[in-house]
Amino acid sequence: MPTRRSLLIGVAAALSAPSLAHALDLQDYDAARVQAAMASGQPVVLHVYATWCLQCHMQKSILDELKAADEYKTLAIFRVDYDNQKDVVAMLDCPRATVIAYKGGKEVKRMSWGMTQASVEEVLKAAL
User: Residue 51: how many CA atoms within 13 Å on its side-chain side?
Assistant: First the structure.
């Protein structure tokens, strides 16, 4: 039976592996670019992410897979750096490992800590 340590080492190794060819190109959060995307009517998703957070890595992995699907290609996805953009995190009033969907410039759905494809997809679909 695997130990907790061996499981953590396995997860860390998987997270450090090279990304797939269709890996999501998350844009770093920039208020002006986010506002421009929202003003254009584009669906926007924010991912509040910390590099040391396993839940965040799981969510990013799911986003990487889903972004390759045709139905999500119109989404503008921005990553908010939990550790270095505290003002944005405070404005969003959320913990790390949060995915927030905006449609028509208004927040329509958010999810924190979810690590299943279904929980992430629910947020993405709300933005469309």
Answer: 5
